[in-house]
Specification:
The chain is about 60% helix and about 5% strand. It contains eleven helices and four strands, in the order αβααβαβαβαααααα. Helix 7 packs across helix 8 (about 150-200). The chain is rod-shaped.
Length: about 290
């Protein structure tokens, strides 16, 4: 694959001398798979990616893995640029060793932390995330070389992530509304308390109304007292009527009634005795006068 580290190396090769005509050789998939390993981008994709780099003057497709003198002459190549790390062939020799001995090799510096292996490592490390993302974008399990069970697992994880994101958005909205509601409630509660105190306070209209109507209610429910000989109610009668109004009449017990009845009989007997005694005295008085 072609990345920014390659572009920076091509920039170094382009600016190493004045008036450089830079030819970039790109190996085919067949050669790369044989000597290096499986590629991420196809050879056609890599040809196009390199051709669009601004430092490139010409792209040499299907370039050989190792160069020889005849290849250099045919393509009018004066120097070969590559990073200075030795590339060992099957014989254990550096494939750029001969060019280095002839003084036809230009070493370039790699960009630290940027390489094809690093990019692939990032993808492998976050493999599940990328598979879930592509499944969500419409790729099938067959396209991603994923089994049926893994496909269902990744889709379930995607649903869980969607629910988490949705709940976060909902909670954020609720939090904003909650603050707004609390502020409104605080303002309304203050107004309610002030209105309540004005209405039911000591100097409020409800207090005055109760004071004015209390006396009228007592007069309406209290019966007038018994008239005195002078035609006016005495204070005692008024107070007694108020007490009768306040407290209900008590029921008299049977014992008390019996006692009261017995007392009445005694009084009657005494009156009869007095009557008989007065009659006896009257009769005796008449007899003495006659005699």
């Amino acid at each position: 694959m072609f990345h920014q580290g390659h572009a920076r190396q091509l920039m170094q090769a382009k600016t190493v001398f004045q008036n450089v005509y830079l030819i970039v050789g790109v190996c085919s998939d067949k050669v790369t798979h044989t000597f290096k390993g499986k590629t991420v981008m196809t050879d056609e994709e890599r040809y196009e990616a390199v051709r669009h780099c601004r430092y490139i003057d010409e792209v040499l497709k299907d370039a050989p893995w190792e160069t020889n003198d005849q290849f250099l002459i045919d393509n009018k190549i004066d120097f070969v640029a590559h990073d200075d790390i030795p590339y060992i062939n099957e014989d254990g020799q550096d494939i750029y060793g001969g060019l280095k001995e002839k003084g036809m090799f230009v070493g370039t510096q790699r960009t630290e932390g940027v390489s094809t292996s690093d990019v692939i490592s990032r993808i492998v490390r976050d493999y599940d995330m990328y598979v879930r993302r592509n499944l969500q974008r419409g790729y099938s399990a067959k396209d991603l070389n994923v089994s049926y069970l893994k496909e269902k697992k990744f889709k379930l994880q995607n649903k869980m992530e969607e629910l988490k994101d949705r709940s976060k958005r909902v909670m954020g909205t609720i939090g904003e509304k909650k603050v707004d509601m609390l502020q409104r409630w605080e303002e309304r509660s203050r107004d309610f308390i002030v209105s309540f105190l004005l209405l039911f306070g000591r100097d409020g209209p409800i207090s005055h109304f109760w004071k004015d109507s209390k006396g009228k209610l007592l007069q309406a429910f209290s019966p007038p007292g018994s008239p005195t000989p002078s035609g006016r109610n005495t204070p005692d009668s008024t107070s007694s009527s108020e007490e009768n109004l306040r407290s209900p009449p008590r029921k008299s017990s049977r014992t008390k009634r019996y006692l009261d009845d017995d007392g009445d009989d005694d009084d009657d007997e005494e009156e009869e005795e007095d009557d008989l005694l007065s009659r006896y005295n009257y009769i005796n008085g008449e007899k003495s006068s006659n005699s």
